[in-house]
Amino acid sequence: MIDEKINQKYIKKIKLFNKYNKHYYDLNEPLVKDHIFDKLKQQILDLEKKYTFLNHPVSPKNSVGFKPSKLFNKVKHKVPMLSLSNAFDRQDLVNFEKKILNFLNEDLKETIEYSAEPKIDGISASLIFKKGKFITGLSRGDGKEGEDITENLKTIKDIPIQIDSNNFPEEIDIRGEVFIQNSDFKKLANKFANPRNAASGSLRQKDPRETKKIPLKFIAYTFGFEKGLKTKSQNEYLEKLKEWGFKINPLNKIIKTIDGLLKNYNDIEKKRDKIDFDIDGIVYKINDFKLQKRLGNVANAPRWAIAHKFSANTAISQIENIEIQIGRTGALTPVAKIKSVNIGGVVVSNATLHNEEEINRKDIRIGDTVIIERAGDVIPHVISVDLKFRNKNSKKFNFPKICPSCGSKTVKDFNFTTKKEDAVRRCSSEGYECEKMAIEKIKHFVSKEALNIEGFGKKIVENFWNLKLIRLPHDIFKLDFLKLENLDGWGKQSVANLKYSINLRKTISFEKFIYALGIRHIGLENAKLISKNLRSLKNFIALSRNNNIDDLINIDGIGETQINSIKSFLKNNENLNVLNNLDKVLKVRDVESQKKNGIFNNKTFMFTGKLLNMSRSEAKSIIEQNSGSIVSNVTKKLDFLIIGDKPTNRKVEAAKNLKVKILNQSSWLKMLK
Ligand code: IVH
């Protein structure tokens, strides 16, 4: 009862805080003077400190002001700002190196050099210099488009405004991290929950004079677009940055071998609390730019870099309940509802239990006392059960054999690659028939990487679903906007904004469209491959009619798993209904024929046997960069069969019979010259 009263008092303050914020940042008309606002913020933080069960998403601890994005102009990054894949242990690093060596297919194990750079936990920024002059500064935004925060960045002393060095490139987008030192953060007296929030909050102030009050720092570490940069490696580039007047991380190091990386990692982790800025891991980058270029990127992270995260904080808590969440592809994810605990400054009340197998293996039960771990931005998880505290009457957790949302049977697929049953149990419904899956599918449909309808977040999808406004993706384009204005929490302006963002996405690339459908096993990369091959939505819809889904096997990178998944997607009437309706409300752009200027234009290639100093993926990307395409069967449509070491005889014979040109690796590469 007492708890409830405290909670009510807290929520009242949160609501007021949200209102003030909205007026200040979004509507640009403050309701109260700064000191009243600050006082309220402090009261909320104090309450949370005293009663750790209080944790609201809009708390000043979790939110940095109100989304001020509308205040800044959006600018497209010429070269996207990627993120990094994470590694947590030695095995992850071994796999990372293995993948690189496989891709390059060269014996570089002993010679590969890494630039190891402590990963500062701040806010990344891109600084565009033309003829030595700082022209524009952008935030990362969604990686493709950032906010123009030039004026705020100009207040940072570490950022040179004019560089006169004669070896400075004609144009370059220098990227690095904006952050606040811990010692400076302490002086800010509770204004922000942590140094990262302080950096982010002050960088995004609408008034640069406010930014200037906070002693922000900038450390440079990479670049985006450049014209005239003459460095051959990361450490050479870092040296040049120093010469041009930028600060670089004093703890950067060039290291060979994984053992070397691990030693450096342990050394730095030990002195972590003595460093005057927050670091949450170490970034490893292949030092040689030539190798970086060959390796390229996957979806939205480079193949040539990884972030080795520091081990997480742990805490002990008790499982109050185990809930089952149903994901977009039907996966049943058990989530432990735990007694709220503070882990490294964040209040945690949920922990993922991953899947059925994990629960069985660790024999996790309701009521158990458990160790919870939270690492960076990864969802907290249960490490182990402390059996000493287990109640005698506790019972094994029964994983549901029918879907808690729609009642369909739940199944575990057999994985043909691992020859084992999957660890994950799934709802066997194809999608929209299961309420929970349908909601998740719509969330995916509007999400950043898919349709990217700005302002249409997960909460709004849930809210509109509960109000029965949407059931299927195309309902989004039939919303009655006048009606929306009368809904709780909505008004003329916010509805107008939503309508604008929805209309903006009525034209979409075929590739994004395929991804947005949320077909299992069809992520960004596969959607790209399929769209390149099929070229139009019409052809995709026709697949089921013409019974030629199996032809997709000709796409290099698409296998049986993906084909089976597309088959069951297209077999389902509701999915076909969604496709046809979306075809009516959206304009899905056909894929323009590939750039035609490449030397392999209109030519098809196939490889057999092992290539020298090059992996298949690299060979494939060379073909594609030169406008050619890869097929995986010898047919009349094949133009060239490239043979490496120990080719498959059957393929060579078939090519001979069909009079397909056969080349060895070096004659093929000569074609490029
Ligand atoms: S390189 C494509 N180097 O980590 C490579 N990033 O998850 C990405 N970060 O958004 C950038 N220190 O904010 C790079 N030495 C470093 C870094 C670093 C911190 C941050 C950066 C980026 C995030 C990637």
Helix-strand blueprint:
Blueprint lengths: L1 H25 L7 H17 L23 E3 L9 E2 L2 H15 L8 E8 L2 E8 L2 E7 L5 E3 L2 H4 L17 E10 L1 H6 L7 H9 L4 H5 L3 E12 L6 H10 L9 E4 L1 H13 L8 E8 L2 H7 L1 E2 L2 E2 L2 E5 L3 E14 L5 E12 L2 E7 L3 H7 L6 E6 L6 E5 L24 E2 L2 E2 L4 E2 L4 E2 L7 H12 L11 H9 L14 H4 L7 H13 L2 E3 H7 L7 H11 L2 H10 L13 H12 L1 H13 L1 E3 L14 E5 L7 H10 L3 E2 L9 E4 L5 H9 L3 E4 H8 L1
Parallel strand pairs: 2-13, 23-24, 25-26, 25-27, 27-28
Antiparallel strand pairs: 1-6, 3-9, 3-10, 4-5, 4-7, 7-8, 10-13, 11-12, 14-15, 14-17, 15-16, 17-18, 19-22, 20-21
The structure holds 2-(butylsulfanyl)adenosine.
Key descriptive features of the protein:
D-amino Acid Aminotransferase, Chain A, domain 1, 5-stranded mixed sheet, 23 helices, 5-stranded antiparallel sheet, OB fold (Dihydrolipoamide Acetyltransferase, E2P), 673 residues, binds 2-(butylsulfanyl)adenosine, alpha+beta, 22% strand
Structure description:
The chain is globular. β20 and β21 (420-421) form a beta hairpin. By secondary structure, the chain is α+β, with helices and mostly antiparallel strands. The protein is 35% helix and 22% strand. α1 (2-26) packs antiparallel against α2. The strands form 9 sheets. It has a 5-stranded mixed sheet. A 5-stranded antiparallel sheet has the order 16-15-14-17-18. Residues 82-84, 117, 119-120, 124, 140, 177, 221-222, 283, 302, 305, 307 line the site of 2-(butylsulfanyl)adenosine. 2-(butylsulfanyl)adenosine is lined by residues 82-84, 117, 119-120, 124, 140, 177, 221-222, 283, 302, 305, 307.
